[in-house]
Every structure is written in structure tokens, then in C-alpha cells.
Amino acid sequence: MVKHIVMWRLKDRNEEGSKKDNARNVKQMFEDLNSKIPGMLKLEVGIDYAMTDASSCIVLYSEFVDQKALDRYRTHAEFKKAAAFIKEVGTERRMVDYEV
């Protein structure tokens, strides 16, 4: 199994909307991918409420049966749409992929 975790920080505001609005949109776009990618076991998105200097704004946690399933996720049209949006509203991205 492959676990894929990503954290983003968002701009305070941009032409798309406020940080809070954009966080909700990112959450919805990624969660809409559930059950659309063969081999994806789980995907959940959390929006940070602590808002400390060390916090990221959003975290994505997902599980895949193998690397090929993760690769399918990364090439899926809906993923590409969500990734393009987060590039517009984000300022920083951190990621970890690991096998268990």
C-alpha cells in the first residue's frame, strides 16, 4: 500500500476568493475524486483550524493499493483540475509518499 500526504498553505486572498473559500473549494475538488480512481482506497482532506505560524492550511491524506494507482490518480483529469486550482491559490506545498 502507498500513502500519499500533502499539505498546502494558501494565499490570504486572491481573485478566486478568500483563504477560507479557497480551502473549502480545494477540499471539495479533491474529495470529489473518491471512488473515481481505480486502486484508490481512501482520500480525505482536512482544513486547519489552529492557524498557528507552523500550520498548513489544508492536508490531504490518501491511500492507494500500489504505485500504479497513485500514478493513475496523478494523471486523472479531475486531479489535474484540482491541482491547477491549488497552484493558483496556494503559496507552499509539502508532500510525502511512502509504502507500508
Mean pLDDT: 95
The H-and-E topology, N to C, reads as EEEHEEHHE
User: What is the level-2 CATH architecture name?
Assistant: 2-Layer Sandwich
Cα end-to-end separation: 6 Å
Overview of this structure, please?
The chain has a four-stranded antiparallel beta sheet with strand order 4-5-1-6. Strands 2-3 form a two-stranded antiparallel ribbon. Helix 1 (19-31) runs antiparallel to helix 3. It has a single domain (2-99), classed as Alpha-Beta Plaits, CATH 3.30.70.100. A hairpin with a 2-residue loop joins strand 2 (13-14) and strand 3 (17-18). With 100 residues, it is an alpha+beta fold. The chain is built from three helices and six strands, in the order E-E-E-H-E-E-H-H-E. The mean pLDDT is 95.
Describe this protein with a few key phrases.
single chain, 100 residues, alpha+beta, two-stranded antiparallel ribbon, 3 helices, globular
Summarize the topology.
Elements: E1 2-10, E2 13-14, E3 17-18, H1 19-31, E4 40-47, E5 58-64, H2 67-75, H3 77-89, E6 90-99
Antiparallel strand pairs: 1-5, 1-6, 2-3, 4-5
Helix pairs in contact: 1-3
What is the gist of this entry?
The protein has three helices and six strands, in the order βββαββααβ.
